[in-house]
């Protein structure tokens, strides 16, 4: 989601309220395409962050500090020369363009008052920060654009600054009904595209929001709307425009669970099924949204590496298990060899010398069977050979039975780690999963040298980071805890929970342990249902419509000796079917 003209209008409104009449006290350039202006107004100090980064252009107020280079870049030095102690006179947005013009007053070398403009263009890969004089002649820019880069508009010292062309787009602040009809409602394309391709500053999100507010369908082409529908859409647009002109902004972030999806300066009715966090500042929205997005992206990238390790380990283990099952099946004939040996010992006196087989009555089944013989061996030697085959297959069966059970447990363990990875939301969650993978040999443990050690000196492992379980409060006020990984599951069930607390888990599929703290009070049905929904949601079955949940008092849950983390047994329990959802559940602070 990029900044559109509406959000820029909100940013301008906020900056005007806080920065106009303030003085620039410090200018820094932490990155080649970033600026931070420190502005003092009265007793308040504000930091204005400006980025012309091609992939993430931004402007907002922040409290964070950034590391600056040892030597300031040339553009930064130029701004310091002209703008130190300069006064901000005004901050404007031309139309609904994604452009902000900061009008600044300063004293030149002769002590005369001069006007300069700092212009921020928030336009994706064309973003820039441009410094101009009072006649809009470019003094310099953070990115210089020559005619070799763009034949349409040069951005170089000495050139006159021109607002980038937006084609035939109309200005939403002045567009009339007739212009709205001719520019939008005549186009043979989806309605949302017709809107954002015809009006300056409109993003696909705001076009979708306008259509949703008008209760129209985006499927038909724009030119398929009736006159009444077109008029209704324009009237809805006018209400939105009126809120914009009167600066009735409601900065907010839309979340899907804990992942930020969109942000806006207006309420987004098109996302009414998702949760919304409102903020009192658009700067706070931008800083929070992009920080959260970066965190989610980073977690996804790191979890991708772990997922690859788990997937590879799972493939190897499944192949190993399939081979063991195949070998185990080959041992099914062991009892047949034992019976052959016994029958040869019983009826061997009837076998003629050199016979290649003989028939005997199987006294276990009452059927007559044919037993193959080695004609070079005596009956006793044939019986011994069959008993040897039986004993070898019996030993193989016993060994493979144990090994296959261990391999199956390994598969279930890896499956549980993969499920934990699916619900990981922070780096400390990934750290715990890495620790588990290293402990069981799926990853190599990294070591660091102890301070002062040389060569093969002592080493220590990196410090383990412990994450906290999810914590919810039921509608009836009971505290519910959800383990994020196998270590937490063990901790919750066997150290945190008491005997009278309730324990929930998905039936026969990997998932988190859910503990409901009772405090000695009986739990109402609604809390049971909510805890079951938590267990379903934080499990491998979260994509299903319904999931079967086992639940019991914690005192009935046991951990077998030598079992892997998170694995338990229980023989007394109740069951219910729950929908995997956390909608409406209160997250504890």
UniProtKB/TrEMBL annotation:
<dbReference type="GO" id="GO:1990112">
    <property type="term" value="C:RQC complex"/>
</dbReference>
<feature type="domain" description="NFACT RNA-binding">
    <location>
        <begin position="468"/>
        <end position="562"/>
    </location>
</feature>
<keyword id="KW-0699">rRNA-binding</keyword>
<dbReference type="GO" id="GO:0000049">
    <property type="term" value="F:tRNA binding"/>
</dbReference>
<dbReference type="Pfam" id="PF05670">
    <property type="entry name" value="NFACT-R_1"/>
</dbReference>
<feature type="coiled-coil region">
    <location>
        <begin position="383"/>
        <end position="410"/>
    </location>
</feature>
<dbReference type="GO" id="GO:0019843">
    <property type="term" value="F:rRNA binding"/>
</dbReference>
<keyword id="KW-0175">Coiled coil</keyword>
<comment type="subunit">
    <text>Associates with stalled 50S ribosomal subunits. Binds to RqcP.</text>
</comment>
<dbReference type="GO" id="GO:0043023">
    <property type="term" value="F:ribosomal large subunit binding"/>
</dbReference>
<dbReference type="GO" id="GO:0072344">
    <property type="term" value="P:rescue of stalled ribosome"/>
</dbReference>
<dbReference type="InterPro" id="IPR043682">
    <property type="entry name" value="RqcH_bacterial"/>
</dbReference>
<dbReference type="InterPro" id="IPR051608">
    <property type="entry name" value="RQC_Subunit_NEMF"/>
</dbReference>
<comment type="function">
    <text>Key component of the ribosome quality control system (RQC), a ribosome-associated complex that mediates the extraction of incompletely synthesized nascent chains from stalled ribosomes and their subsequent degradation. RqcH recruits Ala-charged tRNA, and with RqcP directs the elongation of stalled nascent chains on 50S ribosomal subunits, leading to non-templated C-terminal alanine extensions (Ala tail). The Ala tail promotes nascent chain degradation. May add between 1 and at least 8 Ala residues. Binds to stalled 50S ribosomal subunits.</text>
</comment>
<keyword id="KW-0648">Protein biosynthesis</keyword>
<comment type="similarity">
    <text>Belongs to the NEMF family.</text>
</comment>
<dbReference type="InterPro" id="IPR008532">
    <property type="entry name" value="NFACT_RNA-bd"/>
</dbReference>
<keyword id="KW-0820">tRNA-binding</keyword>
<protein>
    <recommendedName>
        <fullName>Rqc2 homolog RqcH</fullName>
    </recommendedName>
</protein>
<keyword id="KW-0694">RNA-binding</keyword>
<dbReference type="Pfam" id="PF05833">
    <property type="entry name" value="NFACT_N"/>
</dbReference>
């Amino acid at each position: 989601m990029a900044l559109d003209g509406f959000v820029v209008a909100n940013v301008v409104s906020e900056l005007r309220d806080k920065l106009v009449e303030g003085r620039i006290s410090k200018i820094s350039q932490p990155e080649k395409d970033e600026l931070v202006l420190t502005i003092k107004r009265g007793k308040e100090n504000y930091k204005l962050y400006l980025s012309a980064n091609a992939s993430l252009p931004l402007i907002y107020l922040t409290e964070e500090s950034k590391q600056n280079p040892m030597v300031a870049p040339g553009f930064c030095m130029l701004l310091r020369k002209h703008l130190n102690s300069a006064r901000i006179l005004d901050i404007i947005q031309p139309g609904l363009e994604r452009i902000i013009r900061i009008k600044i007053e300063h004293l030149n070398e002769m002590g005369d008052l001069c006007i300069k403009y700092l212009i921020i263009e928030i336009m994706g890969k064309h973003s820039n920060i441009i410094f101009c004089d009072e006649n809009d002649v470019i003094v310099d820019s953070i990115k210089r654009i020559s005619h070799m880069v763009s034949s349409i508009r040069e951005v170089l010292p000495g050139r006159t600054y021109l607002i980038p062309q937006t084609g035939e787009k109309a200005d939403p602040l002045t567009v009339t009904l007739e212009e709205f009809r001719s520019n939008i409602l005549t186009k043979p394309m989806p309605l949302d595209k017709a809107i954002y391709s015809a009006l300056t500053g409109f993003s696909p999100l705001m076009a979708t929001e306008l259509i949703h507010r008008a209760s129209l369908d985006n499927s038909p082409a724009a030119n398929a709307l009736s006159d009444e529908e077109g008029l209704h859409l324009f009237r809805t647009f006018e209400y939105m425009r009126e809120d914009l002109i009167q600066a009735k902004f409601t900065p907010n972030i839309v979340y899907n669970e804990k992942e930020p999806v969109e942000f806006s300066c207006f309420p987004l009715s098109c996302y009414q099924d998702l949760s919304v966090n409102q903020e009192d500042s658009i700067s706070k929205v931008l800083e929070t949204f992009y920080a959260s997005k970066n965190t989610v992206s980073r977690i996804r990238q790191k979890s991708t590496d772990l997922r690859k390790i788990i997937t590879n380990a799972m493939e190897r283990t499944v192949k190993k298990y399939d081979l063991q099952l195949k070998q185990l099946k080959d041992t099914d004939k062991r009892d047949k060899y034992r019976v052959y040996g016994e029958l040869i010992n019983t009826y061997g006196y009837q076998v003629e010398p050199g016979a290649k087989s003989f028939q005997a009555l199987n006294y276990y089944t009452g059927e007559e069977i044919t037993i193959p013989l080695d004609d070079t061996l005596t009956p006793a030697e044939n019986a011994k050979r069959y008993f040897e085959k039986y004993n070898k297959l019996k030993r193989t069966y016993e060994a493979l039975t144990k090994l296959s059970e261990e391999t199956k447990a390994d598969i279930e363990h890896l499956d549980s780690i993969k499920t934990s990875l699916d619900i990981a939301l922070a780096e400390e969650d990934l750290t715990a999963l890495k620790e588990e993978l290293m402990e069981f040999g799926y990853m190599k443990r990294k070591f660091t040298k102890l301070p002062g050690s040389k060569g093969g000196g002592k080493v220590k492992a990196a410090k383990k980071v412990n994450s906290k379980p999810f914590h919810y409060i039921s509608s009836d006020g009971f505290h519910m805890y959800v383990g994020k990984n196998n270590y937490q599951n063990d901790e919750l069930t066997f150290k945190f929970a008491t005997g009278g607390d309730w324990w929930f888990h998905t039936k026969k599929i990997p998932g988190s342990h859910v503990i409901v703290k009772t405090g000695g009070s009986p739990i109402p049905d609604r809390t049971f249902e909510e805890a079951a929904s938590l267990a379903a949601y934080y499990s491998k079955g979260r994509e299903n419509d319904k999931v079967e949940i086992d639940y019991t008092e914690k005192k009935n849950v046991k951990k077998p000796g030598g079992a892997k983390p998170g694995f338990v047994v229980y023989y007394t329990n109740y069951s219910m079917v729950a929908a995997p959802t956390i909608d409406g559940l209160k997250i504890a602070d």
